[in-house]
Amino acid sequence: MKQFILKNWSNEKYSLLQKWLNDNLNLKYKQFQQKIVKTKYPIIGVKIPTIRKIASYILKGNAESFLKVCKNESFEEIVLKGIVISKLNINFKQRVEIFEQYINLIDNWAVCDIVTGSMKEFSKNKTYGYEYILMCIHSDNLWKIRVGIVALISFYVDEKYVNKILDHCKYISNRFSIIKTSKKSNSSHYYVKMANAWLISVCFAKFPTITKTFLETNSLDDETFKMSMQKIMDSHRVSVEDKLYVKQLRQLHNNVKQCKQ
């Protein structure tokens, strides 16, 4: 992989990278990825740790030159491009500006979560990063909304932000409350709602008392509420006692719902 440490990238050199990716695919992994990731981009079948390693070598050379010739012809190339952007030796504001354009390439949960989770500098730029996240969750681009949610999950669930985050969860839920989704339909709205439920479950694991109060207000749409309950039940960070509480809350929710029908 050291051949990817380059002072200058050209289309010819980039073609060699594409050839390397295709020569190093893992067929079983490719088939697995095709089942769980729905994307318009062809999936070659190169594992994400390998993509990260390639990115680390690119970043030792002229990464800006790489971005100028980088194609968007496969799932792996999209991920690679995003990871390189997340690690560029530039200030956070510049990174966000480049990332803002990159978001338009995202069409699946995997790219969204892998690349957003790689944007580690959110942790060192909480105030500016939070302002950007607010812009994301108010966007009309559903994948950009998920970017904002995943950034909150990855870098902001702490004592300072937890109450604000739960308010955002309520806002997102209310915004899409009348839209019914399903994983089978590959609806982008489904992946927003599921990310919202995931965020609520992380808040519950870290701040159970605050999140219980939030859930007891029953301010979520029915679909997001059910997804949140399931994500909490699936979490290894939630105690047996709190899972019992969730079961009871879910039953209460169902009873109230039946009474209204």
Describe this structure in words.
With 261 residues, this protein is an all-alpha fold. The chain folds into 2 domains: 1-89, no CATH class; 157-261, no CATH class. 68% of the residues lie in helices and 0% in strands. It has 14 helices and no strands. α7 (109-118) packs across α9 (142-155), α10 packs antiparallel against α11 and α11 (188-206) packs across α13 (222-234). 35% of the residues are buried.
Secondary-structure element series: HHHHHHHHHHHHHH
The N- and C-terminal alpha carbons lie at a distance of 62 Å
Overall number of strands: 0
Largest sheet: none
* Low-pLDDT regions: none
The gyration radius over C-alpha positions equals: 20 Å
Number of helices: 14
**Helix fraction by DSSP (H/I, runs of at least 4):** 55-70%
Overall average residue pLDDT? 94
Overall morphology:
elongated
Assembly status: single chain
- Helix/strand-derived class? mainly alpha
Our estimate of the beta-strand percent is under 5%
The number of domains: 2
Short précis:
With 261 residues, this protein is mostly helical. The protein is 68% helix and 0% strand.
Observed structural traits:
mainly alpha, 261 residues, single chain, 14 helices, 2 domains, elongated
What's the structural blueprint in terms of helices and strands?
Blueprint: H1 11-23, H2 27-36, H3 48-58, H4 63-69, H5 75-87, H6 92-102, H7 109-118, H8 126-137, H9 142-155, H10 162-175, H11 188-206, H12 208-216, H13 222-234, H14 240-260
